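Hi,

I'm pasting everything inline rather than attaching a file, because the server keeps stripping attachments. The sequence lines come first, and each chain or strand is labelled.
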Amino acid sequence: MANAEETARAADARDIRDRWLLSAPALVIILLAATGPLFVMLAYSFMLKGDYGDVQFGTFSLDGWTSVLFQRDMFDDTLGLADAHLTIFWRSISLSFYTTVLTLLFGFPTAYFIATRPPKTREVWVFLVTIPFWTNLLIRTFAMQQVIRNEGLVNTALMALGVIKQPLQIMNTDTAILLGMIYIYLPLMVLPIYASMEKLDFRLVEAGYDLYAGRWQVLRRIIFPLIKPGVIAGSILVFIPSLGAYVIPRVLGGGKNMMLGNLIELQFGAGRNWPLGAAISITLMVLVMIALLFYVRNASGSEGAHG
Amino acid sequence: MAKRPFDIQAQPGFGFMALLTFFALYLPIAALVAYSFNAADSLSRWDGVSLRWFISAWHNSAVQDASVRSLVLAVSAAALSTIAATMAALATTRTRPYPGLTFKYAFINQPLMVPEIVTGVALLIVFSRIKVWTGYSGLGYLIAAHTAFCIPFAYLPIRARLESMDLTLERAAADLYATPWKAFRFVTLPLLRPAIIAGFMLAFVISLDDVVITEFVKSGGQDTLPTYMLGQLRRETSPEINAIATVFLALSVVLVTAFYFVNRRKP
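And the predicted assembly:
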């Protein structure tokens, strides 16, 4: 008996070893070209900046981190808040928040609409949401530019109708970034909500009406609680990439209306302050992690409520 | 009875909002495509329908160059990431939980958790130093970076497929004296093929579309189609960019449609 047990244990150990070998290529590539560099960046955020970009290797300094939020006064060397950075943090967080709320406002009815179609046409509607989702982000940003630029679709139409005499300046404003982000991240809101809506048991809705609930009450008390996991997943899927947006503000926001992604790029380009860029990157990563933790806590909570 | 039956699924205004959403999703794309057929020299005028910008893009050597590089990169990254992801999926499914399994899941999905701009600058830091040390500044860096962030996408469908398969057929093969390799080659692999194709296509599209990480990793003169377009968007754009975007768009639609059908086919 003991012998058989030993053989089994040896076979188990061999199986586990084989499984590590088998997953090694994937793990090594990710370590070298994704995870590892993040740790190098963490180290860089604690070094002195070099004169022409890069860092002074092996030095230690907290300058990178303090200049995320503070700046040293040019004349009396005191620390003050870096207003430009605060503005950018605030723009990133508030625009991401508005994007989430507005995509939910349009995405929820859309998902509901798709889920209540007959099964055959439903697939077509889902497919129509999937196509923009898989279309290059840059191309969709560019497409948005065609609509809102001064000689674009909206302005041409409004001027032809005589509503306005001068084109509306939408490009290079926060509104342009917001419109672009709503447009681009909308499918990320619709798809997860649709996924939970598809499983919705409409007999529960019927029961609600039988008990004299109105349309609004049914929506708020029955449908919404049941699809809450989808709403939370969608919100996270929209909020997180919005926070790290780089292409959309660069193309639609012009040079002045930066978000965190553009501030980071600036430090590695013209700003020549790699430790600061590294510190802002890590701050952005922490903000994303907080959002994810919020999601994990809520998702497990609502699952427990159903089970 | 004369009254229309009460529709329990109806919610006032939802259909309108949904149709508005679909209209808004496709209007910008329609505008982009329409302007690519513009005969005028700039986007501010409309001079009738013409294919001149498609022809001019086709003959633009920078565009040719970037297109070839994009394709080489996407095929290499998709192939490498699909192989690595298939092996990883075999190693992480159909087993009792073992030490390190959760770690592997988390690690494989790590590239999805970090904003692209952050991965981009982290790679810039590391690769720029390696470029100085080794003097090599070829396509290898881009292939490595793309392979890494494509792995989680290729892994997804393959793992899902494996989890719906049990080990019965492999055990039967072993009973019939198949070596583990033969069992894999003639039993597991054919069953897994649709998922591997799906994983490859996902990885291909993800690599082809990437702009942020490529922008930070590429060496001078290593533009892919998306980074070339991003560079052009800075200046006053001509309808040539629309023509390139339209072709790119058509390619994406074809790929998504193909992916849809590959995935729908019942094994």
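The longest helix of chain A spans residues 2-44.

If the labels don't parse on your end, tell me and I'll reformat.
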